[in-house]
Write a structure and sequence with these properties.
Strand content: 25-35%
Strand order of the largest sheet: 7-6-10-4-3-14-16-15
Helix content: 25-40%
CATH topology of the largest domain: Immunoglobulin-like
Amino acid sequence: MRVSGRQKAAAAAVLLAIVVAVPRQAAAQGWIQPRPGVAPADWGIEKLRTTVTVRVTDRVAEVEVEEWFRNNGGGLGEGDYVYPLPGEAVFSNYSLYQGDRELRGEMMDAGRAREIYEGIVRAKRDPALIELIGKGMVRARVFPIEPGQTRRITLRYTQVLDRAGDALRFRYAAGARHVGPRVVPMPRHDERSTTPAIAEPAPLTFTLTVEEGARYRDASSPTHEVNVEREDGRMIVRPDGELSGDFAVFLPFAEREVGVSVATHRPSSSEDGYFMITLSPGEAAESTVPRDVTVVVDVSGSMSGEKMEQTQRALRQLLGTLHERDRVRLIAFSNVVRMWREEWVRPTRAELAQARRWVEQLRAEGGTNINDALRAAFSETSPDDRLPIVIFMTDGLPTNGETRPERIVAMAEAERGRARVFAFGVGFDVNTYLLDRLSAAARGTTQYVRPDEDVEEAVSLLATRVRHPVLTDLALDIDGIDANEIYPRDLPDLFAGEELVLFGRYDGSGARGVTLRGQRSGRAETYRTRVDFPSRAQGDEYIARLWASRKLGDLDRRIRSAQADGAGREQIERMIDELRETALRYGLLSEYTAYLVQEPGALALDELRVDGRSFVAAPAPAAGEAAVGRAERARRSREVASVADMQAAEAIALKSVVVPAAPGSAGGSRVIAGRTFVLRDSIWQDVRHSDERRVVEIAAFSDAYFALIAALPEVGLVLREVDSALIAGRAVSVKVTTSGARTLDDAQVRRLVADFR
């Protein structure tokens, strides 16, 4: 799709409008709900701040929440204090105070709390609070707060931590951090920029302290980035940045060399559930598996200058990560291939000094003979008790020797043996198909280093990550469970200090054995734990979206490889259709659900299936800025291990979104939950909707509305952001407005789900 300068400017403006969508006053943690009949204009209670302190001893977490509220209104503030709780967690021994005065409250499970949450959503006309449906609740009548007064509410309760394989799991409902996004109008070029006053969320601090910290490896979270500190035998965990939504923390036991933690989510027994398996090897002072490291570096003419200097510094650092049990080979290539030594070399002090001198003498000149360089890299084999690693760096396309990427890939796959390949594409003039294929089947990765990024930093991070192999040739077994669609497809090796996270789906239920098998220096190792796979379990919805993100990244790479290999149109379109449907169902951004900036020759806008017509399987370019951007987005999607990772990948993808102005759109366009919407007649309309498609109209905040959200979570992701929308499914579109059906019976819901999906 060709993008003019005017289109790019418009896209940038729309993107800025999306990025600066700012939340209004938060409803995070607890809040005081006004009594019925109180007009919004008369309600003046504002939350000032929240402090959450958690102390974990054995399997019990003692939670204390302190919240400060001030009455900024002119009248007496009376209402109910409402606090969300994870839906299926076990709580006990709770107490609730307003200052020093004890409040009489009640604790409810998710089923009892649902009706109250729905009533609040209806009364406030607040779609953002939809995410609280399915949570438990503490509720208490607070004493009246005089105008101008500040009062503290303290909630204390204990929570028994779930056992998740070889870890304990703590769950916390941080609640909604917003009441719905608001797009800030962008000023015209001839106007002075003004920023409207925005009510910021109340500050929140959260600290979790594990008393017997030595019993556990460093805590991790699949929902948020966390900072972990150790002090006086305790482990202290804090979220890195704003805490919102559901917060899950895993505490892996340190007693085993490799811990296997498992979490599950299954919204319905009628469809396969989702699982997340985390392998935690802990730290290691030295490699438990010796390595054979081959470094292959491009020294063609295009690598001259700063790139060559960065590469030389990176090689020096990489040499410094070798252990005495490792072996190393260095290969440089341009139009010809040069080796430091023909055979494997032990990294003694004398040999490393000679290797560094060889690196210093490298000069960038000549063409790019990738084929012969890879053939040389794979020419030396390694015994079974050693892990062969090939680190391959290039900044160009093959210009000498064999130049056809598909032939180079075929040679590499035939000759690489057991070697793991970690590739680096430097700059935009690289063949993404070639590099991705090199690492895809070799249990490695490909990373793209943009022109403004540092080669040295990228290589150093990899060298540190793969420094201490713990287990290789991993295999996973689950007794009596049909585990399917596991990502990554080929399990990578396990390195010390780095958790390996797997996502998959399962059919079956019950307490089952989970077994991890691997090789350590030629010896078989087995780790086993027991996990309950429920027939129905809610509360960890994030697992489904993380699994879907992994699937999207995998499908995108397979589609690009199939296009480059000249696969049949039907096969490619089947994969594209699967990718699109997955992205839409789980509310994720993809090349096929939103319009992306692409270079000439890439998939054109009118070739996308936005109106029910088949995709055109046009091959995307393998090189160039757009190709590198797409390959890097797919890599990030394939490697997400947390909600924070997924949000970061979505933010990067969003920078490439073009939302064109559409005829009849009065208020611009937006990307919501991976879909593109235009505003027409005060309704956000999915661009995939066509006039020929059947429409089911639902009244907002009615019983039918909540039934719809429960049955179609992908629709709920959109309705959390906007009040009125027309959302396109496969055979039907759903229109949510002030009018429409107010109730749906079970048969109508089942038909709607079937037609929508």
